[in-house]
């Protein structure tokens, strides 16, 4: 981008920051992040320019304001979950839709493949798991696998494994998004084959009312982790007006924040799977848990970011 165009596009914003300084720490932080992004761009492409010196001075002035309005760590924690992460998600909704689309398409493919190939479920889920589940079905407890281990150790193991899967999906975005797409595709195919396995035996509803108690949060988090990975990969593939390195660094920061934001979701999903899924609950109670989890995901990651973004716009 030419320097004159860069200045023209951003001069009004910089003037407003300079002439109308904010005392609100949240807004001041958001302005500082945006300004340092502009400064980094200017330092990359116009290192000896007046605009770079101007932005450096403005950033220093804003930094002093931040230090004067510095909040404690607890307030910063609240700001991250209440404002920073949702606004970041608003910028990533397109990639979130792509991630969900890939996962859904893979799930359908897994279902159709299992329907047309009797060996497909064993290939995807493994002979050990399939044989154990068939044995449990004969005993009248198709999902007895959830009762086979101690609750506390199961909670720790499941939670750590889910976090590992999410961060692996995010890290694989480093391979220009293709690694993330492969992870989404594999998990989607596995879920589709898994659900068809129970459908074929007339147990789809029974299995869904149990599995999706924790699966609603767990599967949603994997899709969101896919969004984080695509954020990293796309920053490398499509740098826009930034240098490829600068775009990549920005993408890693954004993707990592999204991935970190999933940790509480996986902890909750692990708790539900270890302590609640194993229980024999009335269908209404299971339905309430599933719908509540789905409503939270839709609200926090889709509706609330849209609403918050509108209120932040002038």
Automatic annotation (TrEMBL):
Which Pfam family, an example, fits this chain?
SpoIIM
Kindly provide the name given to this protein in its UniProt entry.
Answer: Stage II sporulation protein M
Q: Which PANTHER family match?
A: SLR1478 PROTEIN
What keywords sit in the KW lines?
Membrane, Transmembrane, Transmembrane helix
**Taxonomy, superkingdom:** Bacteria
Q: Does Membrane show up as a keyword for this record?
A: yes
Any coiled-coil ranges, and where? none
Write the lineage as a comma-separated list.
Bacteria, Pseudomonadati, Bacteroidota, Cytophagia, Cytophagales
Say if the entry is tagged with keyword Transmembrane.
yes
**Residues annotated as transmembrane:** 95-114, 211-237, 258-277, 283-303
């Amino acid at each position: 981008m030419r320097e004159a165009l860069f200045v023209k596009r951003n001069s009004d914003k910089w003037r407003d920051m300079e002439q109308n300084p904010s005392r609100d720490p949240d807004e001041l932080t958001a302005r500082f992040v945006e300004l340092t992004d502009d400064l980094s761009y200017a330092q990359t492409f116009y290192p000896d320019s007046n605009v770079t010196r101007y932005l450096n001075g403005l950033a220093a002035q804003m930094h002093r304001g931040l230090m004067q309005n510095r909040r404690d760590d607890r307030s910063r924690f609240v700001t991250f979950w209440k404002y920073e992460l949702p606004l970041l998600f608003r910028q990533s909704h397109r990639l979130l839709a792509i991630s969900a689309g890939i996962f859904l398409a893979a799930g359908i493919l897994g279902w159709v493949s299992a329907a047309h190939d009797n060996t497909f479920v064993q290939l995807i889920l493994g002979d050990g798991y399939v044989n154990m589940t068939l044995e449990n079905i004969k005993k009248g407890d198709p999902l007895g696998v959830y009762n086979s281990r101690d609750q506390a150790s199961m909670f720790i193991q499941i939670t750590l494994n889910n976090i590992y899967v999410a961060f692996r999906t995010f890290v694989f975005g480093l391979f220009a998004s293709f690694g993330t797409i492969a992870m989404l595709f594999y998990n989607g195919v596995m879920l589709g084959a898994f659900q068809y396995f129970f459908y074929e035996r007339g147990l789809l509803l029974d299995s869904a009312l149990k599995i999706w108690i924790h699966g609603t949060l767990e599967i949603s988090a994997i899709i969101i982790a896919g969004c984080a990975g695509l954020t990293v990969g796309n920053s490398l593939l499509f740098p826009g007006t930034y240098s490829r390195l600068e775009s990549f660094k920005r993408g890693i920061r954004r993707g990592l924040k999204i991935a970190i934001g999933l940790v509480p979701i996986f902890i909750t999903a692990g708790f539900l799977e270890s302590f609640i899924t194993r229980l024999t609950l009335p269908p209404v109670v299971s339905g309430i848990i599933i719908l509540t989890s789905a409503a939270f995901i839709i609200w926090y990651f889709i509706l609330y970011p849209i609403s918050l973004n509108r209120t932040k716009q002038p």
